[in-house]
C-alpha cells in the first residue's frame, strides 16, 4: 500500500501498486487505486472461511460471482428484493430475464422473444406468470407459450401444425369484440333465444305444430276454402288451362274403368273412354259431332 502526499492511495499486491504510484506520481486527484497482478477478490461472510462469498475481477476485467475464491456460475445477485439498483446500463443482456423490464429490449434472450420498447421480457404486464407448459384446455399441438393471471385465467398459444405455420390460441375466459361491447359465442357458450331476437319463439317440433293446426287456421291464412277431395259441390265453373291434351277424368277403381271429358291435342273435345282407348262422343274443330257405336263405326251427325 502506498499513501502519497499528493492525496492518492495505491492498494494492491505484486508490482501493481508500485506501477500505479509511478504512473500517477505528482497527480493530486485524490483517488484510491486497488490493483493486483492477478485477480482481485472482494469477499464477505469470511468468519467461517469455507463459506466466504464475494465477487472477483479477473485478469480479463470481468466482474464474476465467486465462492471460496472460485468463480461460480448462476450465483449471487446485484441487489435484492428489498434493495434494488435504480438503473442497470448494458449494451447486451444475455440469459433468462425475469421480472419487469422497462425501456428498449432487443435481441433474443433464451426465454424472451425479440421486442422493441417492451414492458416485460418474460411476461406481459398484468399477467402473473408465463411458462412453456399448459396442462389446461385443448391439448392439440405443442405449446408456444402460456400466460396466466392472478385470478386463474389465462391465454395459451399452440403450434397445431408447424409444417404449414398453423397456430391456435386457447383462452380460459370470455372473448369480446367491438371494444368489449359484444361477446363472442361458441359451442360451449351458446346465445339464448333473447340474445338473437327470438325470445317469443316457442321450441316445438314440426309434428307438435302440425297437431295444433286447425282447418280455420289454414283457410284464414289462404283467404279461401279449398275444394274437399270428396263430396264437395262447386258453385261455379272450374277452368283448366293447359297446352296439349287436358281434361277431367273419372276412374271407377272397382270396375277398372276410366272415362273422362277430354280436349285432345288435335282440338277434338268430348267423352273419351280411357280404358278402351276410344272416343264415346266428341266434336271436331269444324263443329261436327261424332258418335262411336258398338261396332266402332262412326256416324257423323249435324245439329245433333
Topology:
Layout: E1 2-3, E2 9-12, H1 16-24, E3 32-35, E4 40-44, E5 53-57, E6 63-67, E7 70-71, E8 129-131, E9 142-148, E10 154-161, E11 166-172, E12 176-177, E13 182-183, H2 206-212, H3 215-222, E14 246-252, E15 257-263, E16 269-273, E17 278-283, E18 289-292, E19 298-301
Parallel strand pairs: 2-3
Antiparallel strand pairs: 1-2, 4-5, 5-6, 6-7, 8-9, 9-10, 10-11, 12-13, 14-15, 15-16, 16-17, 17-18, 18-19
User: What is the number of beta strands?
Assistant: 19
Distance between the termini: 156 Å
- Rg is 52 Å
Helix count, DSSP H or I runs of 4 or more residues: 3
Query: What is the spatial order of strands in the main beta sheet?
Result: 14-15-16-17-18-19
Please estimate the helix content. Answer: under 10%
Which residues form runs of ≥5 with pLDDT under 50? 109-121, 293-298
The dominant shape is rod-shaped
Could you describe the largest sheet, including whether it forms a barrel? 6 strands, antiparallel
Report the mean per-residue pLDDT as an integer. Answer: 81
The sequence of SSEs as H and E is EEHEEEEEEEEEEEHHEEEEEE
Structural class: mainly beta
Percentage of residues in strands: 25-35%
Amino acid at each position: 500500500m502506498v499513501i502519497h502526499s499528493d492525496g492518492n492511495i495505491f492498494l494492491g499486491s505484486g508490482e501493481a501498486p508500485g506501477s500505479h504510484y509511478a504512473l500517477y506520481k505528482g497527480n493530486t486527484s485524490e483517488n484510491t487505486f486497488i490493483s493486483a497482478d492477478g485477480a482481485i477478490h472482494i469477499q464477505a461472510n469470511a468468519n467461517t472461511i469455507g463459506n466466504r462469498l464475494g465477487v472477483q475481477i479477473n485478469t480479463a476485467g470481468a466482474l464474476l460471482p465467486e465462492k471460496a475464491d472460485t468463480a461460480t456460475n448462476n450465483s449471487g445477485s446485484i441487489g435484492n428484493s428489498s434493495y434494488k439498483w435504480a438503473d442497470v446500463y448494458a449494451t447486451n443482456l444475455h440469459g433468462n430475464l425475469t421480472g419487469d423490464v422497462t425501456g428498449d429490449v432487443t435481441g433474443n434472450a433464451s426465454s424472451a422473444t425479440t421486442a422493441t420498447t417492451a414492458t416485460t421480457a418474460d411476461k406481459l404486464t398484468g399477467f402473473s406468470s408465463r411458462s412453456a407448459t399448459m396442462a389446461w384446455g385443448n391439448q392439440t399441438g405443442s405449446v408456444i407459450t402460456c400466460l396466466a393471471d392472478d385470478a386463474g385465467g389465462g391465454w395459451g398459444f399452440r403450434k397445431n401444425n408447424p409444417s404449414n405455420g398453423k397456430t391456435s390460441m386457447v383462452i380460459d375466459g370470455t372473448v369480446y369484440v367491438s371494444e368489449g361491447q359484444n361477446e363472442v359465442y361458441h359451442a360451449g357458450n351458446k346465445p339464448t333465444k333473447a340474445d338473437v331476437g327470438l325470445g317469443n319463439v316457442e321450441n316445438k317440433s314440426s309434428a307438435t305444430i302440425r297437431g295444433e293446426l286447425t282447418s280455420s287456421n289454414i283457410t284464414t291464412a289462404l283467404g279461401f276454402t279449398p275444394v274437399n277431395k270428396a263430396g264437395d259441390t262447386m258453385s261455379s265453373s272450374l277452368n283448366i288451362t293447359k297446352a296439349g291434351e287436358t281434361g277431367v277424368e273419372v276412374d271407377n277403381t272397382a270396375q277398372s274403368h276410366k272415362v273422362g271429358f277430354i280436349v285432345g291435342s288435335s282440338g277434338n273435345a268430348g267423352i273419351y273412354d280411357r280404358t278402351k282407348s276410344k272416343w264415346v262422343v266428341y266434336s271436331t274443330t269444324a263443329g261436327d259431332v261424332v258418335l262411336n257405336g258398338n261396332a266402332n263405326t262412326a256416324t257423323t251427325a249435324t245439329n245433333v
